[in-house]
Amino acid sequence: MVQEEADEALIARCRNGDGGGFAALVGRYQRPIFNLAYRMLGEREEARDVAQAAFLKALENLHRYDSRYKFFSWLYRIAMNEALDVIGHRGRQTELTDVHAADDDPARDAQTADLGVRVRGALGALSPDHRAVLVLRHYEELSYEEIGRVLDLPDATVKSRLFEARERLRVRLVDAGEA
Amino acid sequence: MDARVLELINLELDGRLDDAGRAELELALKNSPVARTRREQLRAVARALADAPAPAVPLDFRDSVLRHFPQRSKRVPRYRLGLALAASVLVALGALSLTRLELGGAPEDVSGTMAPAGATVAVTRQAGALTLEFALPLQAAELIIDLPGAGSLSASVTGAPEPAIDGRRIVIASTGGEVMVLVVGNVNEFKANLVRHGVVTPVTVRSP
Fold first, then answer.
1. How far is the C-alpha of A75 from the C-alpha of A36, rounded, in Å?
2. Do the chains contact at A19 and B53, CB–CB below 8 Å?
3. Which residue of A11, A32, A123, B1 is most buried, as measured by CB atoms within 10 A?
4. Residues 99-138 in A contacting B (C-alpha not used; CB under 8 Å)
5. Between β-strands B169-174 and B141-146, what pairing exists: parallel, antiparallel or unpaired?
6. Distance CA A101, CA A113 (A)
7. DSSP A64
8. CA-based nearest distance A161→chain B, Å
9. pTM, two decimal places
């Protein structure tokens, strides 16, 4: 059985300028980071730019990473901040209706793709703060504590914000006949 | 809707409900059709989020990120000093060939010419040892080093996994960046190629 190299070892390699270490970290986290960016932004090209910027910013600031905390929490935090910056620059809430994304896999069930579009639309209608906790909890499957580290919030705030976000999403999806 | 019941429903969704909370929720659900409806709706919300299709990561995403990996600074890294020291020790001990090596003819004439350049190597020659410092594009590829001549070789690598050595050929599975190879044995010249998806990129020699 092949044992994956631990994040800490890969980070040490990066710090020594080893491109292989960085390549391994990108390979390991590209999916969740791209997913996070896409769920927040709803648009593939923006998500790609944000995910890329997150990895490069992480690399630039690796000397600031505190190894007492999990690397992915730190990386998620960078990616989330990048995504929130993009949303901030948009200057408005954006309906996440990138219907092209549903066409990536031609064999994908049309009903599932349609649900994806509607959920994305409902998510996009929420505030970025509410969207962030839902994305981290439901798509990245982080615990309250991990969400708190990513968003720099106390656990109690994470809980209350998550419950409120769910409630708002419920209202939107009930109105749309999804819940 | 009672705020406490709503909290219990949410905690249940997050797998955070303890036994006491579960009993409290079950009692509330038994007595409140509104609570039951709300619980079903919130479960449906969670299902809708879970069922929404995940986006596919662009196929070239990793490579596009790695293209931005900065070149290593000019500072001499510690491992390089270590390798240089190791090579010097070998020379000082006279453990290997006492024959003066022919150092001419830097091996720019490498096999394979169809791929664009981009991979370079700096060569440091010493009696019985050859240090090759590769600067490779940041992508997965096989680095193949052929060393004409006779006799057995040993090699150590920094910046890439341990090499496979087949006679006078060294094969390294590289992900790019800087790779240093110290070859010990009867070495005088070499040919180096980077092979990716069947495309051969010759490694050109640069000044150390």
1. 11
2. no
3. A123
4. 101-102, 104-105, 108, 112-113, 115-116, 118-120, 134, 137-138
5. antiparallel
6. 9
7. G
8. 11
9. 0.60
CA distance A62 to A59: 5
Is the distance from CB of B153 to CB of B185 less than 8 angstroms? yes
CB contact under 8 A, A174 and B41: yes
Strand pairing class (B177-185; B129-136): antiparallel
**Interface ipTM > 0.85:** no
Residues B146, B74 contacting (CB under 8 angstroms)? no
- Taking the C-alpha atoms of residue B188 and residue B130, their distance in angstroms, rounded to an integer, is 8
Mind listing the pLDDT tens digit of every residue in chain A (179 residues)? 445 689 999 999 888 888 888 999 999 999 999 999 999 999 999 999 999 999 999 998 998 898 888 999 999 999 999 999 999 988 654 544 443 333 444 444 455 556 677 888 889 899 999 999 999 999 999 999 999 999 999 999 999 999 999 999 999 888 766 66
Chains A and B: how many Cβ contacts under 8 Å? 129
Residue B171 tokens read as 């094969």
